[in-house]
Design brief:
This protein is of the alpha+beta class. The protein has one domain. It is about 55% helix and about 15% strand. The chain contains five helices and three strands; from the N terminus they run αααβααββ. It has a three-stranded mixed β-sheet, with helices on one face. A hairpin with a 2-residue loop joins β2 and β3. The chain is globular, with a radius of gyration of 21 Å. It starts with a helix and ends with a strand.
Length: about 150
């Protein structure tokens, strides 16, 4: 009886371990997913810059929707060098609201965008789209930071 319990316990532990490994692997994006996300990051960053410069709430709305759909934060290239301040979707939506005064239909669309990202507590890693400039130019790159 003791051997059977030990064998069942070991089997259950192995199954849980395998499931945990598979869950971690599913979180890793494929090359195609990264390429798609990179395009969204570039478009969103451009729309934020243009929306702010032109005080255009529609550009900010589209940028916020793109950023809200991403699984990783996006560093704001306007943040100070070495600072990894990410775009805050709620702040972008607030800016869009301030530019959309009097347009109730647009305000309703802004209100429909989710502005909070899920809590990241308990994860062993967090990933960001970081922005870096080198001699060849500036670009976003996907970078994951692991907690020890």
């Amino acid at each position: 009886m003791g051997i059977l319990v030990a064998a069942l316990t070991a089997g259950a532990f192995a199954l849980l371990s395998l499931t945990a490994v598979q869950a971690q692997d599913q979180k890793k994006p494929t090359g195609a997913q990264l390429a798609d996300a990179h395009a969204k990051v570039e478009i969103a960053a451009g729309l934020v810059a243009l929306g702010r410069a032109n005080e255009d709430p529609m550009m900010l709305l589209v940028a916020a929707r793109l950023l809200a759909d991403l699984d990783a934060g996006v560093v704001d290239p306007a943040s100070a060098a070495g600072d990894r301040t990410t775009y805050d979707v709620a702040d972008i939506l607030d800016e869009a609201r301030s530019f959309a005064t009097g347009d109730q239909a647009l305000l309703d669309r802004i209100a429909a965008v989710p502005d909070m990202r899920g809590e990241r507590r308990g994860e062993r890693a967090y990933c960001l789209w970081e922005y870096e400039c080198a001699a060849t130019g500036c670009d976003y790159y996907y970078n994951c930071h692991y907690d020890d």
